[in-house]
Amino acid sequence: MIRKAVSLLESKIVIGLIICLGSIAIPNMINTINRAKANSCISNLRMIEKAKTMYALLSGAGDNAAVNIENLYPQYLKNRPLCPMKGKYSIYTAEIITEMPHCSFHSTVANGLPASTLGNLSDTRDRGNRV
Ligand SMILES: [Zn+2]
After folding, report:
1. How much of the chain is in helix, strand and coil states, percent to nearest 5?
2. What separation in Å is there between the alpha carbon of 51 and the centre of ligand 1?
3. Average pLDDT in the chain
């Protein structure tokens, strides 16, 4: 049986290709993971908003009433929502019922979508409410 050794040049070419493909694939994979976490955060914010609406309707609380997680959990929320990027939801402190819930990490805009899926930007939610 004849064994052919792999030359140094061949192994360098293979390692270079692996590094090149990794430099393309890894940033895309990280972006996909961050988008998935942002979508999970949006879903949590929508769930909080619906729970606040149900609470307001069923308890008869006025538009300026303060609400926090203790008012919503466990009657209107099955669990305490947590941001996958460890952002803090505004519902954990007192919040006015008519305010849109927001995340300290992702921020929100008027329609509940994050201003940025990658980081903490200024809260643009108020800009949308003035229209
Ligand atoms: Zn978040």
Report:
1. 50, 5, 45
2. 17
3. 80
Contact 100, 109 (CB under 8 A): no
Contacts of 45 (CB under 8 A, 6+ apart): 89, 100, 101, 102, 103, 108, 112
pTM: 0.67
Q: Is 62 in a helix, a strand, or coil?
A: coil
Kindly give the distance from the C-alpha atom of residue 121 to the centroid of ligand 1, in angstroms, as a whole number. 12
Q: What residue ranges of the chain have pLDDT lower than 70?
A: 1, 108-131
Q: How far is the CA of 2 from the centre of ligand 1 (A)?
A: 60
**pLDDT digits over 105-127, tens only?**
887 643 445 454 444 433 434 44
Ligand 1 center–CA 20 separation, angstroms:
32
Cross-strand bridge partners of residue 103: 89
Task: Return the pLDDT at 125.
Answer: 40
Cα 80 to ligand 1 centroid, rounded to whole Å: 13
